[in-house]
């Protein structure tokens, strides 16, 4: 069962996206300020047309920074931004020669924050090709190849940084989201997981189901055999549930002795078979810790997602079905109608 890799890296967890948003704001406003500075410089040199054009570009950057202060701008806007900056630097290189080279490095660095990984490689290659073409035209060959290589080194270091960030984020997320006793996802992430399942189901126009599984009379297990024994039972029960779950399913420890399993792309019938298998695995083999061997059962409430249902309503439907299973004598699965 794949738990964490099947889960979204979004919202509260996505540190990289959060960091990107901060970086992008700085890039838009920072570029706007720097370009405004060059506009003033051009005006002081009495180059009014260039000054006016640069001032308009600077205002454009500030406007984008303002409009996208709370969300990432669409990729096409960033593409326009990077083309604009690339053109400004190329023009600056043509007029000031090697002095323009210094602006190439920060622009290459910006590309790392601006684009999703799907088009990042394409954009960085385009910008590199543009800069390489300009430096070979403007600089003597001896300078040009050194600059070209140093830009490649910057791209390599940036790419390594991105890969490290992605791996660090996965590890951090995994550590933060995993329940230490059972290895399932923590209850704090329940609503996010359920909402994510709804979004996926609606987008793919596929069914989705979830089951709430609650250990039966667990208080008496704790009372009779001790809390530590109860811990071992919970640990083993979670492992049995996960052994039935498929790689795309998500298992969450939703409270003390209760689990929620989300089955994406799965209708009620197939989910009921999986949930029954999970309950069977718990009830059939006794739980043994040292010399103690105890048979424990669990009850389940299953609900298929209904169009336009709120995530809380979906969970509520499964909860009501679980309540029925408990009130009808436990050790059974009930399906919400
Ligand atoms: N050992 C252990 N017990 C826990 C843990 N978390 C919660 N519990 C216990 O799990 C029990 C859950 O009880 P309930 O679900 O309210 O009721 P129940 O006794 O299971 O009875 P029914 O649910 O009605 O079948 C409580 O006794 C909690 O103390 C845990 O981490 N370890």
Summarize the structure.
This protein is an alpha+beta fold and 337 residues long. It is 64% helix and 11% strand. The longest helix has 37 residues, at 141-177.
Q: Layout of SSEs?
A:
Blueprint: H1 15-44, H2 48-67, H3 75-96, H4 104-114, H5 117-138, H6 141-177, H7 190-204, E1 208-215, H8 218-225, H9 227-244, E2 250-255, E3 258-264, H10 268-284, E4 287-289, E5 292-294, E6 298-304, H11 311-327, E7 333-335
Parallel strand pairs: 6-7
Antiparallel strand pairs: 1-3, 1-6, 2-3, 4-5
Helix pairs in contact: 1-2, 3-4, 3-5, 4-5, 4-6, 5-6, 8-9, 9-10
Bound molecules: guanosine-5'-triphosphate.
Guanosine-5'-triphosphate binds at residues 181, 214-219, 222, 227, 230-231, 234, 256-257, 326, 330.
Cofactor: Mg(2+)
Keywords: Membrane, Transmembrane, Transmembrane helix
Pfam families: GGDEF
What key phrases describe this protein's structure?
337 residues; alpha+beta; Alpha-Beta Plaits; 5-stranded mixed beta sheet; two-stranded antiparallel ribbon; 11% strand; elongated; binds guanosine-5'-triphosphate; membrane; Nucleotide_cyclase; diguanylate cyclase; Diguanylate_Cyclase
How is this structure best described in words?
- This protein is α+β, with helices and mostly antiparallel strands and 337 residues long.
- The chain has two domains: 11-176, no CATH class; 187-335, Reverse transcriptase/Diguanylate cyclase domain (Alpha-Beta Plaits).
- 64% of the residues lie in helices and 11% in strands.
- The chain contains eleven helices and seven strands.
- The protein has helices spanning 15-44, 48-67, 75-96, 104-114, 117-138, 141-177, 190-204, 218-225, 227-244, 268-284, 311-327, and strands spanning 208-215, 250-255, 258-264, 287-289, 292-294, 298-304, 333-335.
- A five-stranded mixed beta sheet has the order 2-3-1-6-7, with helices on both faces. The protein has a two-stranded antiparallel ribbon with strand order 4-5.
- Strand 6, helix 11 and strand 7 form a beta-alpha-beta unit.
- Helix 3 (75-96) packs parallel to helix 5 (117-138) and helix 9 (227-244) runs antiparallel to helix 10 (268-284).
- It binds guanosine-5'-triphosphate.
- Guanosine-5'-triphosphate (GTP) is lined by residues 181, 214-219, 222, 227, 230-231, 234, 256-257, 326, 330.
């Amino acid at each position: 069962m794949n738990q964490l890799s099947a889960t979204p890296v979004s919202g509260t967890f996505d540190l990289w996206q959060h960091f990107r948003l901060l970086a992008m704001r700085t890039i838009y406003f920072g570029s706007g300020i720097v370009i405004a500075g060059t506009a003033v410089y051009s005006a002081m040199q009495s180059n009014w047309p260039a000054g006016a054009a640069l001032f308009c570009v600077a205002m454009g950057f500030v406007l984008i920074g303002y409009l996208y202060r709370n969300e990432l701008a669409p990729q096409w806007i960033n593409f326009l931004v990077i083309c604009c900056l690339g053109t400004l630097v190329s023009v600056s290189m043509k007029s000031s020669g090697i002095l323009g080279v210094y602006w190439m490095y920060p622009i290459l660095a910006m590309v790392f924050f601006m684009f999703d990984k799907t088009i990042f490689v394409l954009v960085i290659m385009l910008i590199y090709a543009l800069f390489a073409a300009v430096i070979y035209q403007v600089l003597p060959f001896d300078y040009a190849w050194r600059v070209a290589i140093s830009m490649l080194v910057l791209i390599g270091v940036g790419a390594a940084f991105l890969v490290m960030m992605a791996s660090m984020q996965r590890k951090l997320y995994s550590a933060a989201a995993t329940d230490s006793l059972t290895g399932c996802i923590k209850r704090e992430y329940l609503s996010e997981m359920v909402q994510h399942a709804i979004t996926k189901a609606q987008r793919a126009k596929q069914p989705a189901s979830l089951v709430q599984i609650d250990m039966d009379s667990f208080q008496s297990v704790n009372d009779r055999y001790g809390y530590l024994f109860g811990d071992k039972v919970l640990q083993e029960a979670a492992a049995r549930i996960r052994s039935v779950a498929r790689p795309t399913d998500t298992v969450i420890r939703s409270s003390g002795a209760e689990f929620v399993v989300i089955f994406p792309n799965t209708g009620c019938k197939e989910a009921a078979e999986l949930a029954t298998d999970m309950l069977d695995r718990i009830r059939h083999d006794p739980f043994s810790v040292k010399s103690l061997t105890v048979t424990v059962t669990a009850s389940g409430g299953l609900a298929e997602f209904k169009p336009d249902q709120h995530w809380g309503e979906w969970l509520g439907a499964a909860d009501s079905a679980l309540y029925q299973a408990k009130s009808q004598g436990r050790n059974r699965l009930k399906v919400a109608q």
